Amino acid sequence: MPKNVLQMKNAYIHEESSQRREQHDHRRQRNRFIGWVLILVVLLFILPIFNLVRNREVLEQRRKHYREMDQQYQQLEREEERLSNLARKLEDDDYASKYMRARYYYSKDGETIYTIPDLLPK
């Protein structure tokens, strides 16, 4: 194998070399352009995905808050029903006197009160 390789320098070699350089530069520019386009596309997809995830977290928090408020509403509704039943029952004088005697330990003169917890009116 020869050690020294000599390249000819003529117009054809020079033209082919410049065409190869132009093609290489053109590919490089095209690849750079495609790279920037891909980066732009990725950034354009990241922002909506970030907003979507954040909105989902907010939605989950609001759903949790809604469930808590619904439970509190149900509890207040039951309490309101209980108090309205008690108010309806207290309109009856006999029930009102029994309730005052049992709940607040009111008694008539000479009367002794014995409380039994299970028998207290609610």
Description:
This protein has 122 residues and is an all-alpha fold. It has a domain at 11-68. Helix content is 75%, strand content 0%. The chain contains 2 helices and no strands. The protein is rod-shaped and about 135 Å long. The mean pLDDT is 87.
Order of helices and strands: HH
How would you sum up the major sheet?
none
Radius of gyration: 45 Å
Looking at the structure, what is the overall shape? rod-shaped
Proportion in helices: over 70%
User: Are there runs of 5+ residues with pLDDT below 50, and where?
Assistant: none
Number of helices: 2
Mean pLDDT: 87
Query: What is the terminal separation in angstroms?
Result: 113 Å
Question: Count of DSSP E strands?
Answer: 0
Structural class: mainly alpha
Strand content: under 5%
Brief rundown of the structure:
The chain is an all-alpha fold and 122 residues long. 75% of the residues lie in helices and 0% in strands.
Which descriptors would you attach to this protein?
122 residues, mainly alpha, 2 helices, rod-shaped
Give the secondary structure arrangement, pairings included.
Elements: H1 11-90, H2 93-104
